[in-house]
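This section describes the prediction task in plain terms. A model, or a person checking by hand, is given the sequence of a single protein chain and must write out its three-dimensional structure as a string of tokens. No templates, partner chains or ligands are provided. The sample shown here is typical of the held-out split.
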Amino acid sequence: MNNRFFRAPAILSILLIGLAWISPASATPMTSCTMTYTMSGFSFVYKQYDGTGNISCSNGQHAVVGLSSKSIGFTIGKSEIDGTGTFSEVKNINEIYGDYVSLDAHAGVTKSVDGEVLTCGEISLVLSGVGRGVDIGVSLGALSISPIKQ
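The expected answer:
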């Protein structure tokens, strides 16, 4: 009986040391990132826009990226858009690269307005922009974000 009394604290101590070793204190802190971008393109049922962006994060990381958007929907026009984007928090800027599913609404005559909500796995991105052109529509597609080597 005395043996069991001394074994329980020993096992509990080993478990606590193990939990301390894998505690969230060793986890990578999250960072917030924003992007400014410029895109131009056309749409007639099929929409294709290409451009570049500058991403900066609160942890000091930054990148120049290439943007390519392809979608399909009820859409027609041609425009150039300058805008900003806000990403959900990430551990590292490298998590931002990839293909985002997008739902897009845009409209304008001479002055265009564009808004998109995108997702890539657990990461979300909200884009909003203004520009020049003639366009109107709603579409569903993808936006690819890739690093540009400098």
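For orientation: Residues 15-26 have pLDDT under 50 and may be disordered.
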